[in-house]
Automatic annotation (TrEMBL):
Lineage, broadest ranks: Eukaryota, Viridiplantae, Streptophyta, Embryophyta, Tracheophyta
Organism in which the protein naturally occurs: Triticum turgidum subsp. durum
Signal peptide coordinates: none
InterPro entries: IPNS-like_FE2OG_OXY (IPR044861), IPNS-like_sf (IPR027443), Oxoglu/Fe-dep_dioxygenase_dom (IPR005123)
Protein keywords: Iron, Metal-binding, Oxidoreductase
Protein name per the record: Fe2OG dioxygenase domain-containing protein
Gene Ontology MF: a single term: metal ion binding
Length: 196
């Protein structure tokens, strides 16, 4: 049994609660009732991934993780004080400075798709910035971890109008994820392929 299993279970439970609150706030930001995204099961299928980047003696020659956007609905990330995370904003890479005790929340491609670009997934990467090891913990919300799901996801009907036509085609989450993983980490290519 893992020495930190109790702490990990408690962490998972607390981040899951945070995610439910975030989905309520995001629903309201779209002008929908607070439970809307939860009723769409956007908060289902969580997975926790711990990343360890070993010390890199020549960081200028290495990339930790290449340019990509997250495929799911939402990602809650905890990074250590080493840093290395960058987002692509206004045609340039910007460092995301670590703040002790703070989470980074990334909108994923599927939330961009169902919000019809009301929210945008963020392209990001991780650089091996120095010779120190780096640790991050990512908590992903995506229903593809429940492969039996047959729910179709497309732009939310309540957000559409004559002036705001659907920008994306409907898809099963598992089909979107299959496409996403088939092309590999490559900017925002996967979501672009679902545009109408």
């Amino acid at each position: 049994m893992l020495i930190c299993s109790d702490a990990l279970l408690e962490y998972t439970e607390q981040v899951n609660k945070l995610g439910k609150t975030l989905f309520e706030l995001l629903s309201e930001a779209l002008g929908l009732k607070p439970s809307y995204l939860t009723e769409l099961e956007c908060d289902q299928g969580q997975i926790l991934i711990c990343h360890y980047y070993p010390p890199c003696p020549q960081p200028e020659l290495a990339i930790g993780t290449s340019r990509h956007s997250d495929a799911g609905f939402l990602t809650v990330l905890l990074q250590d004080e080493v840093g290395g995370l960058q987002i692509f904003n206004e045609d340039r890479w910007v460092d995301v400075t670590p703040t002790p005790g703070a989470f980074i929340v990334n909108i994923g491609d599927l939330l961009q798709l169902i919000s019809n670009d009301g929210f945008r997934s963020v392209e990001h990467r991780v650089l091996a910035k120095n010779a120190a090891p780096r640790v991050s913990i990512a908590f992903f919300f995506s229903t593809h971890f429940h492969p039996a799901s047959t729910r179709m996801y497309g732009p939310i009907k309540e957000l559409l109008s004559e002036e705001n036509k659907p920008l994306y085609r409907e898809t099963l989450v598992r089909d979107y994820m299959k496409h996403y993983f088939s092309i590999g980490l490559d900017a925002k290519t996967a979501i672009s392929d679902f545009r109408l």
